[in-house]
Amino acid sequence: MHIIKDSFAVKPGSPLLGETIVPGDKSISHRAVFFSAIAKGRAHIKGWLPAGDTEASFRAALALGVPIERISPTEMIIDGGTLHEPQGALDLVNAGTGIRLLAGIMAGQPFPSVLDGSEQLRRRPMNRIITPLQMMGADIQGQGGFAPLAVNPSQLRGIEYHMPMASAQVKSAILLAGLFAEGKTVIGQPGPARDHTERMLQAMGAKLTCEPETITLEPGNPLTAVDFTVPGDISSAAFLIVAACIIPESHITLTGISLNPTRTGILDVLLEMGADITVEETGLEAGDPVGTITVKHSQLKGVRIGGDVVVRMIDEFPIFMVAALAAEGETYVRDAGELRVKETDRLKVMTKELTKMGAQINETPDGFYVFGPQQLDGAEVYGHDDHRISMSMVVAGLSAIGDSKVIDARCADDSFPGYAKTLQKLGASVVVNHEEQ
Ligand code: S3P
């Protein structure tokens, strides 16, 4: 079998200029499909993200017998309410959010299911959802704490559970199981993990109360379908934002971006570093404030970060590392140990790849520190089948001296289809070379 990997050929030297949108939010897109699948009634979803991860969730919903009319890559109508026993395992490919959220839903179904994914997904920890779901009475087994997950029918009961880590995927799995449980479900969270599940379930009629550290779900309110327009993903916008911050003479405007406060840590930190960024709120989509972000190049300054803001920018650390190298002075990150269990160990992999471009990065168990500014040199680097690594390395290449090649870069499509095209439109020289292995 040929595996399509593709590479990006990156030439530095051009500023990023102009206006663009970015694809729909990945977290909201997974949820829009799954929640509409279990809600009674018809949901019309627009602005959906047609990317590797979310398409896996879409296929899982189809395999569960949910009637979905796909109007276009970004638009669909879902007639939810009843799931049916799937034929064969549900393959969530690389989607950690897909498998963990779906596990919560499957735990409450009257039929058995198996949830599986790629080799990469099979290396990601699942005990963080298996343990609380088993406490709720779920019959769910992993393979030594990893996928594939085998789920059998059982009567669930609400629990009070204090999450050991601030994870949106964990609280979502518990809340989704809680919808099918007897009694109330109470979750204690140690930090401000993204709250899309809470906002969307509330919009669909769930009896959910949210306080900063506690979420309570009362049973007995079946979900009712609502229409969603998915806003642009700030995690995708972050690659363009950092690129414009660090590439001289850049000036870009990004419209329709979700400004959900549990996701905007990267903006707060870049502003603290002296970035020239302005944010204007323009409306509300899927319960999130949405707005326009304008970024101009400026000399960044080093920053120390830890605590809650780390949770609010957890997916942005690969690209933040590129920003930190361009900043003057010391940047120190702590409390970011969760990065070691993402698609890859992102602290280790980013350090390894940026080192090939001449960077000096000091990795610590839960973060890193660097002294900048450091001028990177073009190099041949790898994306490691991790979308955010491959997209960050492209931006590193755009800020380097000399050409770069990012090998194994097709995974960018897992969250940002058309990444290279978007950069080209803004004036950057990024060419996709089709490659197979
Ligand atoms: C996500 C939650 C986060 C994030 C991931 C998407 C979600 O993971 O890193 O990319 O949509 O719930 P954790 O819940 O493991 O922190």
Quick overview:
By secondary structure, this protein is of the alpha/beta class. The protein is 30% helix and 27% strand. The protein has helices at residues 26-38, 52-63, 96-106, 119-122, 127-135, 168-178, 196-203, 234-246, 265-272, 308-311, 317-326, 346-355, 387-398, 419-425; strands at 7-11, 17-20, 41-46, 68-72, 75-80, 90-91, 113-116, 139-143, 146-152, 160-162, 185-188, 207-210, 214-218, 228-229, 251-258, 276-285, 288-296, 304-305, 329-333, 362-364, 367-372, 380-382, 404-407, 429-433.
Main structural class: alpha/beta
**Fourth-tier CATH superfamily name of the largest domain:** Enolpyruvate transferase domain
Q: Taking all residues together, what is the mean pLDDT?
A: 97
Tell me the fraction of residues in β-strands, as a range.
25-35%
The CA-CA distance between the termini, in Å, is: 8 Å
Write up this protein.
This protein is an alpha/beta fold and 437 residues long. It has two domains: 7-24 and 231-433, Enolpyruvate transferase domain (UDP-n-acetylglucosamine1-carboxyvinyl-transferase, Chain); 26-228, UDP-n-acetylglucosamine1-carboxyvinyl-transferase, Chain (Alpha-beta prism). It contains 14 helices and 24 strands. The longest helix is centred in the first third of the chain and has 13 residues, at 26-38. The protein is globular and about 60 Å long. The mean pLDDT is 97. The structure holds shikimate-3-phosphate. Residues 27, 97, 167-169, 172, 193-194, 314-315, 338 line the site of shikimate-3-phosphate (S3P).
